[in-house]
Amino acid sequence: MVKGLVVTKKMTNFARSKNKIMKRQVKIAPSLLSANFGHLEQDLEVINNSEADWLHVDVMDGVFVPNISFGFPVLKHVARISKKPLDVHLMIVQPEKFIREFKELGTMMMNVHYETCPHLHRVIQQIKEAGMKAGVTLNPATPVSAVVDVLEDVDMVLLMSVNPGFGGQKFISHTLDKVRDLRERIDRCGSNVLLEVDGGVNLETGAQLVEAGADVLVAGNAVFKAPDMAEMIHLLKNL
């Protein structure tokens, strides 16, 4: 009798897990960093009319990461053109200084790095009090256990699958283990936190990430270097 109960419980848990996977619809966030800035409006118009869910915007300061991307004049122009919600990834030190400015841009998700926020919980609360969703990003060498204490406070965790700072890098395969680990932790606590992955995402790695438990895929070169950007977004969306 006990054995039967155990088997039934295992089958029920499997069914719930399978049902959750079937219900999860992957979101695609093309990365602005890979756009052709000589034809920025044309590229953004394609994104606007595609199945993309968000526009991923990487902001780099040349301090936290060895590169500089773009400042507020460019961001304001992008915000005016984009019809997709802005998923802003701040690769900068002291991101809390710019909460008001990113709110004024119409940012949907303000994503800060765990590694740059010694008072992470406070920054998360400040972002949410400003009316934005709050995300936390982990570098490839930072374990997922680092965000356990804020899983109930954030809206999304972004796992970097390359070292941040440059586009077009090779996917770090260990990220798949981190995705599985974080997926299990999120499901265990019954949270609705989204799991996003950024870096080296294409049709092959994207399929592996979705299978491992990713909710949101950030795709740069895979989208903006494709012969047909809208078709590539469609393919990624339906992995």
What is the topology?
Elements: H1 2-23, E1 27-30, H2 40-48, E2 55-60, H3 72-81, E3 86-91, H4 99-105, E4 107-113, H5 120-129, E5 133-138, E6 156-160, H6 175-188, E7 194-198, H7 203-212, E8 216-219, H8 221-224, H9 229-237
Short characterization:
With 239 residues, this protein is of the alpha/beta class. Helices cover 40% and strands 18% of the residues.
What does this structure look like?
The structure is a single chain. The protein is an alpha/beta fold. It is built from nine helices and eight strands. The protein has helices at 2-23, 40-48, 72-81, 99-105, 120-129, 175-188, 203-212, 221-224, 229-237; strands at residues 27-30, 55-60, 86-91, 107-113, 133-138, 156-160, 194-198, 216-219. Strands 1-8-7-6-5-4-3-2 form an eight-stranded parallel beta sheet. Helix 4 links the parallel strand 3 and strand 4 (107-113). The longest helix has 22 residues, at 2-23. 38% of the residues are buried. Residues 1-21 have low confidence and may be disordered.
Q: Give the total of beta strands.
A: 8
Biggest beta sheet attributes: 8 strands, parallel
Choose one word for the global shape: globular
Radius of gyration: 18 Å
Report the end-to-end length measured between terminal Cα atoms.
Answer: 42 Å
**Into which percentage range does the β-strand content fall?**
15-25%
What percent of residues adopt helix (DSSP H or I)? 25-40%
Multimeric organization: single chain
Q: Can you count the helices?
A: 9
Average pLDDT works out at 91
The topology string of helices and strands comes to: HEHEHEHEHEEHEHEHH
> What structural category characterises the helix and strand content?
alpha/beta
Strand order of the largest sheet: 1-8-7-6-5-4-3-2
Uncertain stretches: 1-21
